[in-house]
Design brief:
Layout (H helix, E strand, L loop, with lengths): L1 E7 L12 H9 L12 E8 L8 H12 L8 E4 L1 H4 L5 H11 L3 E4 L12
The protein binds iron/sulfur cluster (SF4).
Length: 121
């Protein structure tokens, strides 16, 4: 059973990206980067924000996720970094490299595929 943690931008989650619903829908439908789980048992464990600019809290927050879930004996097995970080964050490279260095599990860049090509067409 895979246990997925999504990491996004503190300034975008449930704000610019209302309800974080695109990540949730993408996960529920197994679309975008979640299509890799089409034939697997998988659960969403959480939506974690980066901790705010410039992302210096992300490693501590990952450790907090581990501690917070320890009483339930739940462990993250895959981390997905959302488009709000991958496509828009000026600190993306350092944030992703920190996550990859410390997560101890596979880190996938991307989540849902629902990025609009344009706004007014
Ligand atoms: S560090 Fe990047 S992902 Fe985090 S709040 Fe700032 S812009 Fe968003």
């Amino acid at each position: 059973m895979e246990k997925v943690l999504i990491i996004g931008c503190k300034r975008a989650m449930d704000d610019v990206c209302i309800g974080c619903s695109r990540c949730m829908v993408g996960f529920n439908r197994r679309e975008g980067e979640f299509s890799r789980y089409k034939d697997e048992d998988v659960e969403l464990m959480g939506l974690l924000n980066c901790g705010d600019c410039p992302g210096s809290a992300i490693v501590t927050r990952l450790a907090q996720v581990k501690l917070w879930n320890a009483p339930m004996e739940e462990k993250v097995t895959k981390v997905h970094v959302a488009p709000c970080v991958i496509d828009h964050c000026p600190h993306k490279d350092i944030i992703v490299s920190k996550i990859k260095a410390k997560a101890g599990v596979e880190v996938i860049e991307g989540t849902h595929p629902y990025k609009p090509d344009n706004i007014f067409a």
